[in-house]
From TrEMBL:
Stretches assigned to the PLD phosphodiesterase domain: 146-173, 337-364
MF terms in GO: phosphatidyltransferase activity
Pfam families from the UniProt entry: PLDc_2
GO process annotations (BP): cardiolipin biosynthetic process
Protein keywords: Signal
Protein name: Phospholipase D domain protein
Signal sequence region: 1-23
Species assigned in the record: Paraprevotella clara YIT 11840
Annotated InterPro entries: PLD-like_dom, PLipase_D/transphosphatidylase
Length: 425
């Protein structure tokens, strides 16, 4: 090998080591910042992404079928449709097998969906010996119950497996809806040290709803008669994924009101090269918006994927208001055209990502109960980035030329007007 080739290879190696060192430093700073915010990290975890409703429900139903001790479910809502009925039929089977089943759902989430659980459904569930509780039942005057809803999506099984992410229980996650077409979302299965953290979140919400503590003998690992070895579940895309560092950010209005908002901001502020975001309700509280502006100013590549279609009519107008301003500062804004993209994910520098229930709006970041996982793992992050890149093929890049074609003057005015209400939406 020639002298110049040796020097050239040395330079490349040095550049690679510097790049790796920068990425490692960025991750370390982010983790330390998130710990200061109250995010609880555990070192030995496995993450399996479930990027469609079909994958989520197939995988989750297999795990529920194999449960031997307990199943805890906490959802914003359960839609009374084919998948909801199938889930409760399976849970009824598990109750008759002696498995403890506890269910929490949010009353506002229930009444706001188009096929809610009715009183007759609750009577049927309770007759099956289900333990079902409603978070904050809505009573007159209803305005008192508008804030601080339980927007989490958590299923914990036998202290072994957690399912969490952006999906509630509804068949449109599989079949779509006529007005949107496909309903895209992101969920995941978690295993390892983080599972007791999610179980604790559920148990504390159960106590808040009922006033009763769940006896620890019901869920303690050493009290289980035998351990469940779940089989037939989806394999993770990462060959060696049992050592993933994962942080759980549990937002509670009084105890940890700023945990997810501050964690998003710290992750954005520590980004070195690239940030990719998918979020359906991109109304951007001021502190998050300023963090994105700072990232763009220091040369970080920012890519945001918004959905052309949305289930909340005002959201596209407000999101477009922010999209234009980000575009003018150098961000790439993609409008997803193939249905409604309801995923709530962010990827940073190919090494760090977050997946959870929190939207980038005031409801999630300042009012509701939410939970997000902050995952320090290059494989999981790259898997999410690959999905993002594939979704670009079904998206339109926003440009100054097509901006006015996408948004009429009336819609642009409404975006400006509604953005004044950001503290409330």
């Amino acid at each position: 090998m020639s002298k110049w080739r040796v020097i050239f290879c040395g330079v490349l190696l040095s550049m690679g080591l510097v790049s790796m060192a920068q990425a490692s430093l960025s991750d370390s700073l982010t983790v330390e910042d998130l710990k200061e915010n109250g995010v609880l990290f555990t070192p030995h975890n496995r993450v399996t992404l479930l990027p469609s409703g079909a994958e989520k429900f197939e995988d989750m139903f297999k795990a529920i079928e194999q449960a031997r001790h307990y199943i805890y479910l906490e959802y914003f809502n359960f839609r009374s449709d084919s998948i909801g009925k199938a889930l409760f039929t399976l849970l009824d089977k598990k109750v008759r097998e002696g498995v403890k089943v506890r269910v929490i759902y949010d009353d506002f989430g229930n009444v706001s969906n188009d096929r809610p659980l009715r009183k007759r459904h609750l009577r049927q569930l309770k007759s099956r010996h289900f333990e079902v509780v409603v978070f904050d039942p809505i009573v007159f005057p209803w305005v008192n119950h508008a804030l601080h809803r339980d927007h989490r999506k958590i299923v914990v099984i036998d202290d072994k497996v957690v399912y969490t992410g952006g999906m509630n229980v509804a068949d449109y996650y599989i079949h779509g809806r006529p007005e949107f077409g496909k309903w895209r979302d992101m969920h995941m299965r978690l295993e390892g040290d983080c599972v007791p953290l999610y179980r604790r979140i559920f148990c504390e919400m159960w106590e808040r709803c009922t006033g009763d503590k769940i006896d620890s003998l019901e869920y303690q690992t050493d009290s289980l008669a035998f351990q469940t070895d779940f089989r037939g579940l989806k394999e993770t895309a990462c060959a060696d994924s049992s050592g993933v560092l994962l942080g759980v950010a549990n937002r509670e209005p009084k105890r940890s009101p700023a945990i997810i908002r501050r964690s998003y901001i710290d992750a954005i502020d520590n980004a070195q090269k690239r940030i990719q975001i998918v979020n359906p309700y991109f109304t951007l509280v001021p502190s998050v918006k300023k963090a994105l502006y700072r990232a763009l100013k220091r040369g970080v590549k920012l890519e945001v994927m918004l959905s052309t279609k949305c289930d909340v009519p005002v959201m596209p107008d407000v999101a477009a208001y922010h999209a234009k301003r980000l575009m003018k500062r150098g961000a790439d804004i993609y409008y997803y055209e193939d249905g409604f993209h309801h995923s709530k994910v962010m990827m940073v520098d190919s090494t760090f990502c977050t997946v959870g229930s929190a939207n980038l709006n005031s409801r999630s970041l300042k009012f509701d109960y939410e939970v997000n996982a902050f995952i320090v793992d290059s494989c999981t992050t790259r898997e999410l980035q690959s999905i993002f890149e594939a979704d670009k093929h079904h998206s339109t890049l926003l440009t100054p030329e097509n901006w006015k074609k996408r948004r009429s003057f009336g819609r642009r005015f409404m975006g400006w007007f509604y953005h004044l209400l950001i503290p409330l939406i």
